[in-house]
Each structure stands twice: as structure tokens, then as C-alpha cells.
Write a structure and sequence with these properties.
- The complex is a heterodimer of chains A (about 525) and B (about 150).
- In chain A, β13 and β14 (about 420-425) form a beta hairpin.
- Chain A folds into 2 domains: about 1-45 and about 85-140 and about 215-305 and about 470-530, FAD/NAD(P)-binding domain, CATH 3.50.50; about 145-205 and about 310-395 and about 430-460, Cholesterol Oxidase, domain 2 (2-Layer Sandwich), CATH 3.30.410.
- The mean pLDDT of chain A is about 95.
- Chain A is built from 12 helices and 16 strands.
- Chain A starts with a strand and ends in a 7-residue tail after the last helix.
- Chain A has about 525 residues and is α/β, with parallel strands linked by helices.
- By secondary structure, chain B is mostly helical.
- Chain B has one domain (about 15-125).
- Helix content of chain B is about 55%, strand content about 0%.
- Chain B is built from 7 helices and no strands.
- Chain B has helices at about 15-25, 40-50, 55-70, 80-95, 95-110, 115-120, 140-145.
- In chain B, α2 crosses α5 (about 95-110), α3 (about 55-70) crosses α4 (about 80-95) and α3 packs across α5 (about 95-110).
- The longest helix of chain B is centred in the middle third of the chain and has 19 residues, at about 55-70.
- Chain B starts with 12 loop residues before the first helix and ends in a 9-residue tail after the last helix.
- Mean pLDDT of chain B is about 90; it is low at about 1-5.
- Classes of the chains: A alpha/beta (about 525), B mainly alpha (about 150).
- The interface between A and B is large, with 67 and 50 residues.
């Protein structure tokens, strides 16, 4: 069965799909977004119920293989020390994100020029800055102006509260004379654009029942839909089809009943992020594109970047109130962000303070690590630990390497029989050295803050939140998949707007940049509507 | 935890007795805190374990086999010291059922109203009440504000 043709078909309703849909809506073109998942009902989020910590481990787990919902696709991640974290539904992974909203630094777009590694981006901070600002206005970003780690930028909401825990850790940074700043957080600390203000529930990463966190189902999508964009849920695209001239002419997808359908489109925009996008392109083989769509360069699925994470946790001798406040967003430090070759590696990292664990997570973590024993000593040890731990995750810049890949698994398929992605990833020597440096500095600052003991781990296995680089942008068709404004070099009516077009990963969370790029690509399209395919 | 009920338990009485001993060994009572074998808590543990009843049943059978092999007695009839020795070895050998038991014992225990209140927490979900936070002391940022920019100009 074939649907009426549309002008623009967007695949994926997450961070970038929502932003590009909203921006293009003012063209009055017929725009449809296909999303394999559902709308999520905030009443289903774990924090509505007493067993919220258990529900976090189940259908709101960050790992799709553990979650195993019908709307998820399996991922073979056996050959990667870092496992995927995502969500499939309207809002995409912003449903389960911590809402950190840092921008890249200007230097992040000039890695090769400055540090002689990887490649420069074909665009710069100045180009993206207006789109960062527009994205901030649409999202509602809590923070403070005046951060010496960034060029001047406006902030539109008050910062998230420090809490006792944040103040304790800030004292450690001050003791060492190191940079720290309240995190830029996509959290409404005051009522914003129809969203109520944050009530400090705690576990943002299992969905915000209050609706204060800026998942795109409640930011961009209501505006885009009001402006005429149609979102079709439970539509899983299996292939982008091309005509005899090598132009994309639509998609084949499975509807909610598992029936195969065809949708024609004048323009196709892929917004599946760093794993979903290369998977779809590689599954879109034809006589014209035998190695997958838009893959003349051979780079679709190559150069996969995660952010290798470390964690460092300290034990303090007083309650810290860690269950109050946005769980992921508190303060961060970019003291070690810019390259200093004397450290033994290039590029850098951001330290992001996290708040405390819940009572179950405290017990499980303690028991599994052996820190909290069973038996008569259980209660006493638990009391020494509960609400007395504070720490950080450290997000290290990854650099692109050809051997880190997303390919199609020869055996594994999703519930519609579509070949599933397979991840092959190893840490570089640069990443290993950076992780070591970051853990040592993390321990140092926690001790300076008054921790009596510290523990750490790296890389953090469950932390594959950020998937980037697998359809990189560039001006050279031989060395990139899309051009400097997101259009495929090979297929002139095919665009990509998600993290897969990143050239490098920076040392910060990518969503702010993903969305700024999506807005920039949309604006580039609008400026060229008369000759978009030239 | 009135919203979680245990019905049509897949466990035999003997299995329940064994499980009660095991969870009490994990988290015994003290002056303030209840045991994980407290009926209110234990019934929740059993309801969560029901999905893993087959694995748990096999684990208990293995535990008894170990007990018979070493002491010529079933686990239920051992004294505390012998039980401790057996369980220690058992936990090292039987990963999956032990893991299930640990996860559900901890989860059920630390969701219980009496336990949470004894820890100084409110026995409620985070939403809709949320939590009040004390005003932040932003003067802590003064030394950072005083710094020159630390990003690289391009």
C-alpha cells in the first residue's frame, strides 16, 4: 500500500528530528516524521511509583537490549566495552537523558589545526552560534552567564540548585583553584513554554514526570505539530528507496501491524543518530548503491565515536541530601578541557558532578561491589554509605578511528526482520591516557572536598549515551558522507541531521550541538529551496 | 507496599522456609531495622522472585544437595554456623539464582515503609511531591568568576 506523497519525510522523532521538523514547518511544505516508537505517557515514568528504582532497571532501562521493548531494535554490542544507551519513541533519547546541555568550545571545530589530530569541521562555532542560541530559546536552558570556559552566551533560566552536595564539591574545586560552574541544564527551573518548573525529583534519566526536563516530545514537537507537521508513530523504516536517477524517492517501512508500506517523498531527512542512521543507510542497498545509500566514500558506519566515561565517587562523613535535585545536572568543571600536551594526551574532558543514589541503588551497588556486607554488619555499613556519597562522571573526548564501526549483523534482526546493527569499538591509547588522568584528578578533587575514601572505574561500560561520527560531514566527497550543510554528497535530496554527521566528538554532551546542527541544516535548506538539489 | 500482592505462589512451603532463612542471613533485624524475613517484606520478595521461580527452585535444590553432601542433613535442619559456611560456598558457585535473590531482597527491603522511615526518608514516590532544596550559595563562584577566560580563542 502506498501513501500520498509528501514533500519532506523525516526519519526519527528524537532530538534532531524534532528540531529540523519545527524549523522546516514554516515553509508550509507537507512534512511527515516517522518514528518507530510511541508517544510516552509521563504517568508511566518510574518516579510516579514506589518501585521507581526497579522500573529504572526494566522498561525504562537505558540499554535497548535490556529494555527489549517491541519498539526497540537489538544491537550486537559484544565487541565493544561501551554499551549503547538510547530510547526509541517520540523524544528519542531525550526521554531518558540527564539534560546536560553544554555547547562545544570554539576549539572543538578546529582539532586538526590546533592539535594535529582527526579533522577540522567544515563549519565553525561562529556559524553555529545563532542556532545554539535559537535552540536554547526553544529548549529552556538553566545556567549562569559569565562562565570563563565559554565565549559569552545568554542563559534564559536560573541555574539548578547546588544543594548541600553541590556546595561540598564546589568547595573541593575552590580548594584546588580549579574551574567549576553550574551545569547548563535543559531543565525548566522556572515555568517555561507551558512546562512546569523542576521540583527536584531526582532521577531525570528515567523520564521527567513533572515535565520540567526538555525532552523534545514536550519542547519542539507540540510547536511543530501545531504548525502542520505530522508524526506517525510505530512506523519502522527498513529502507530508503531511490529512483533511476539516483535520487531518494521515499521509504519502505513497517506499520504498527507489521505490514510493509511505501511512502513517497521529495526530500528525505535521516535523524536516527550515530547507530540508527548508518544502520538504515547500510540496509538501503540497490544496484545504484550496492554498498549502502550515500556510501560512495565508504565511510557510512565508520569513525564511530562514543565518549569514554570514567566515574569517581567519594564517601563523606555527613548526609549530603543527594536524592534531591536533578540527578545528573549539578556542577561541572572544564579545568582540563583544552589540550595540554604535557598531560600525555591531546584534547580533554569535562567533569560532571552527579547527585546521590537512591536507597536501592545504594544497597545494590554496595552489595555487588562488596562494600556493604550481608549479615550483622549490613545495617551499620549501609548507614555509613547511604546519602553520604558524592561523585562525578567524566566525559572524555573521543577521536574518530576507521576501525570503530557500525555494521550490519549477519544474523541478528529486529522484530520486523530488519538486519540489526553491530558495534565494533576499542579505546584508543589517547582515550586510555585521558581516562587515567581524569580519574586521578577526580580523586584529587573529592579528597579536597573532604571525602574519606574514593573509588573509581573506567571506562564506564553502560555509558554509550553518545553515538557520533558514522556519516561525517565535510567538503570532500571522498572523505565525508554529507556536505557542510548536511546534504548527502551522493544523493542530493537526502539529508542527515543527527550525531552521525559529527567530525569530532568534543568533550561534552552532544545534544545541544546535534540540535543546533539540525536547525542550521534546516535553515540552509530553506535558504536554497529554489535550487536545493543543484 | 499494598500495591504488590503475592498470589498463587510457585514456591513450596519448604522452599519458602529456606528463602526466609537466606534473606534473614542477608539482612537480619537490629534494634531499629526489621529483618528481610519480616512478613511484610518477605511477601514482596516472594512476589518478585516468582518470575524466576524455576531458577530459584534449582538453586535451593543445589543448596540442599550441598548440605547433604557436607553434613548429611538438609539445609533447614542445620545450625546457624553450618548454614553460614554452606551459603558462603553456595553464593560463590551459583551466580544466577544468587544474583536474583540478592537483587530482589535488596529491592523489596529498601522499598518498605518502615525501612525508609527508619532511614529518615519519606515513604512515597518522588513525584508529585518532589523535594525542597535550600538556597544556593553562589558566592562560592567568586574565585572562578575572577579567572581569565580558559577557552582557546580561534
Amino acid at each position: 500500500m502506498s501513501q500520498d506523497p509528501v514533500d519532506v519525510l523525516i526519519i526519527g522523532a528524537g532530538a534532531s528530528g524534532a528540531a529540523v521538523a519545527w524549523s522546516l514547518a514554516d515553509t508550509r511544505m507537507k512534512i511527515v516524521c516517522m518514528e518507530q516508537g510511541d508517544w510516552v505517557n509521563p504517568a508511566d515514568y518510574p518516579t510516579n511509583s514506589r518501585d521507581w528504582e526497579l522500573k529504572q532497571m526494566g522498561k525504562f532501562n537505558i540499554n535497548p537490549n535490556t529494555r527489549g521493548l517491541e519498539t526497540d531494535y537489538p544491537i550486537n554490542e559484544d565487541e565493544s566495552p561501551i554499551k549503547i544507551a538510547n530510547f526509541n519513541g517520540v523524544g528519542g533519547s531525550t526521554i531518558l537523558w540527564a539534560a546536560h546541555f553544554p555547547r562545544f568550545h570554539p576549539s572543538d571545530f578546529r582539532v586538526k589545526s590546533l592539535d594535529r589530530v582527526a579533522d577540522d569541521w567544515p563549519i565553525d562555532y561562529e556559524t553555529l552560534e545563532p542556532y545554539y542560541a535559537e535552540n536554547d530559546r526553544m529548549t529552556g536552558v538553566a545556567g549562569l552567564e559569565g562562565d570563563p570556559a565559554y565565549p559569552p552566551k545568554a542563559v534564559n533560566l536560573p541555574p539548578v540548585s547546588l544543594g548541600k552536595l553541590g556546595e561540598k564539591l564546589a568547595g573541593g574545586f575552590n580548594e584546588l583553584g580549579w574551574h567549576w560552574w553550574p551545569s547548563d541544564s535543559a531543565i525548566a527551573t522556572e515555568p517555561f513554554d507551558g512546562r512546569d518548573k523542576c521540583v527536584n525529583l531526582g532521577p531525570c534519566i528515567s523520564g521527567c514526570s513533572q515535565g520540567a526536563k526538555a525532552s523534545t516530545d514536550i519542547t519542539y514537537w507540540p510547536h511543530a505539530i501545531r504548525n502542520g507537521v505530522e508524526v506517525r508513530t510505530r512506523c519502522r523504516v527498513s529502507e530508503i528507496t531511490v529512483n533511476a536517477k539516483g535520487m531518494a524517492d521515499g521509504v519502505i517501512y513497517f506499520d504498527e501491524n507489521g505490514e510493509e508500506q511505501k511512502q513517497q517523498a521529495e526530500v528525505v531527512i535521516v535523524a536516527g543518530n550515530g547507530v540508527g542512521t548508518p544502520r538504515l543507510l547500510l540496509n538501503s542497498r540497490s544496484s545504484l548503491f550496492p554498498d549502502g545509500l550515500a556510501n560512495t566514500s565508504g565511510l557510512v558506519g565508520k569513525n564511530l565515536m562514543f565518549h569514554p566515561y570514567a566515574y569517581v565517587e567519594g564517601l563523606f562523613n555527613e548526609p549530603l541530601g543527594g536524592h534531591k535535585g536533578p540527578g545528573g545536572c549539578c556542577i561541572w568543571s572544564q579545568e582540563f578541557y583544552e589540550t595540554d600536551r604535557s598531560r600525555g594526551y591531546v584534547r580533554g574532558y569535562t567533569m560532571e558532578m552527579t547527585r546521590g543514589r537512591g536507597p536501592i541503588a545504594t544497597a545494590l551497588g554496595g552489595v555487588m561491589s562488596g562494600r556493604i556486607p550481608w549479615g550483622d554488619e549490613h545495617h551499620g555499613t549501609y548507614q555509613q554509605v547511604f546519602d553520604k556519597s558524592a561523585g562525578m562522571v567524566i566525559i572524555c573526548e573521543d577521536l574518530p578511528e576507521l576501525h570503530n564501526t557500525v555494521t550490519l549483523d549477519p544474523v541478528l534482526v529486529d522484530s520486523n526482520g530488519i538486519p540489526a546493527p553491530k558495534i565494533n569499538y576499542t579505546l584508543s591509547k589517547n582515550s586510555v591516557k585521558m581516562l587515567e588522568h581524569s580519574v586521578a584528578r577526580g580523586k584529587e578533587v573529592l579528597m579536597a572536598a573532604g571525602a574519606s575514601e574514593v573509588s573509581s572505574g573506567a571506562p564506564l561500560g553502560m555509558a554509550g549515551w553518545h553515538m557520533m561520527g558514522t556519516a561525517r560531514m565535510g567538503t570532500d566527497p571522498g572523505n565525508s558522507v554529507v556536505n557542510e550543510w548536511g546534504r548527502s554528497h551522493d544523493v542530493k535530496n537526502l539529508f542527515i541531521v543527527d550525531g552521525s554527521i559529527f567530525v569530532t566528538s568534543a568533550g561534552v554532551n552532544p545534544t545541544s550541538t546535534i540540535q543546533a546542527l539540525a536547525l542550521y541544516v534546516a535553515d540552509s535548506m530553506k535558504k536554497r529551496l529554489a535550487n536545493l538539489f543543484d | 507496599m499494598s500495591d504488590i500482592v503475592s498470589t498463587d505462589s510457585p514456591f513450596t512451603q519448604e522452599q519458602k522456609q529456606t528463602l526466609a532463612i537466606l534473606v534473614d542471613m542477608m539482612i537480619p533485624a537490629n534494634d531499629v531495622m526489621p529483618s528481610a524475613a519480616d512478613p511484610d517484606i518477605f511477601s514482596v520478595i516472594l512476589s518478585y522472585l516468582a518470575d524466576a521461580a524455576e531458577d530459584i527452585g534449582k538453586g535451593i535444590a543445589a543448596l540442599n544437595a550441598l548440605s547433604l553432601e557436607r553434613y548429611k542433613k538438609s539445609f533447614l535442619t542445620l545450625d546457624d554456623e553450618s548454614r553460614g559456611a554452606i551459603v558462603s560456598d553456595f553464593m560463590a558457585q551459583y551466580g544466577e539464582p544468587v544474583m536474583q535473590l540478592q537483587i530482589h531482597t535488596v529491592s523489596s527491603y529498601y522499598m518498605n515503609d518502615r525501612v525508609l522511615e527508619a532511614l529518615g526518608l519519606e515513604a512515597r514516590p518522588p513525584f508529585p511531591g518532589g523535594y525542597e532544596m535550600e538556597p544556593s550559595d553562589w558566592s562560592l563562584l567568586d574565585p572562578v568568576r575572577a579567572r581569565e577566560k580558559i577557552y582557546r580563542e580561534i
